[in-house]
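Same chain as my last thread, 237 residues:
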Amino acid sequence: MQLRSIHNAVIPCPTDGRRASKARNLVFPMWKLKNGLYSEVELRKYDVLNFTTTSLCGDMKNKKNRRKFLEEYFDIQNVIFGNQTHSDNIKIVTEKDMDGKFYSADGFITNRKNVPIAVFTADCLPVFIFDKIKKIIGLVHAGRAGLSKLIVSKAIDMFVKNFGSNPRDIYAAIGPHICKKCYNVNLDAMAEEQLKKTGVSDISNSELCTYTGDFFSYRKTKTSERIISLMMMEIPY
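reply #2:
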């Protein structure tokens, strides 16, 4: 599967105009905005495709919109995602699970290249996890309920138990989410605490708020629309 680099892709999101003008080309601190997508810079250095869409790209829960977006601009025909239930269920997946929708799954882990995994959010945290030595990726949907069930800790434990990862080799990146000023629970602090307790200290936090930024926010509008966070190890060409 040959993919276009996220840095070179031209996404037809309306980045011109009043709403997007304030955000264009900002970096938070390791998160770069380009053409309506945020990507984590450090992960890209390891050929890990990663991004979180903004509301400018439309509702990613809409199957037709999602497929057109991913196929046309990243040549991704199939993606692994779940019916998210704010659980602590995390699945280890391979090529056999491509285009599979898992019931009650809020996170995925894979050591295979060209296997895209994704979660949908509208205030909850997307937590990107990468073992830089063993080349394993994980992506978790972590809201208040999931964090209370220690879903982030469980993800790291699965890296260690199933793949022999050393937490010191793991890099974690927290994507756009509702901030503590707009919500009465400090979600990113909960996630960071779980990461640190498992031995992960290399952490990037986007500090991008879905309530105030160009994202869908359930708390703000009770919307059913969602942004997508996607992660995949690419085969270098």
